[in-house]
Design a protein that fits this description.
single chain, alpha+beta, 3-stranded antiparallel β-sheet, 5 helices, about 10% strand
Length: about 140
């Protein structure tokens, strides 16, 4: 009200209240390049289905900056090997958007699809403790464990 009164010329003074310092809600910087490089190195030492899947996921997270929900919502039909693109549902969008894949990311994804197979369904599926592939979609909670 004071601001409006000042704008229309009823008063010449104003109220100034210092703003409180905003505290960040949480640290969203990520693990850093060194830690990510170490993860890639560790995953590169194994050729297991889990290592291939996790390397493809890490590539999408790191190279494209995707959120976990965008990754777990991917189906095999959203992946185009010829054009090296993915149709991704981004936060705040109602339609999938095409994202071009860097060569290393496309290669990691191709190596995972060789293991998983080319049947329609989720792109990233669960792997049980014995290393057997499960047809269930990988959940977003799997990224936190």
């Amino acid at each position: 009200m004071v601001k409006l009164a000042r704008m229309v010329g009823f008063i010449t003074w104003e109220i100034q209240i210092p703003s409180r310092r905003v505290e960040p809600f949480r640290d969203t910087r990520g693990p850093g390049e060194e830690a990510v490089a170490k993860m890639f190195e560790t995953l590169g030492k194994s050729d297991s289905p889990k290592a291939r899947r996790d390397q493809a996921i890490l590539r999408l997270l790191f190279d494209l900056g995707l959120r976990r929900e965008s990754i777990v919502s991917l189906d095999l039909q959203h992946c185009s090997d010829e054009s090296r693109t993915l149709q991704i549902m981004l936060k705040g969008h109602s339609q999938r958007m095409p994202k071009r894949l860097p060569p290393v990311t496309a290669d990691a994804l191709k190596r995972w699809i060789e293991i998983q197979g080319t049947e329609d369904g989720p792109l990233f599926i669960r792997i049980d403790r014995r290393g057997a592939l499960r047809p269930d979609r990988l959940s977003g909670m799997a990224f936190t464990t």
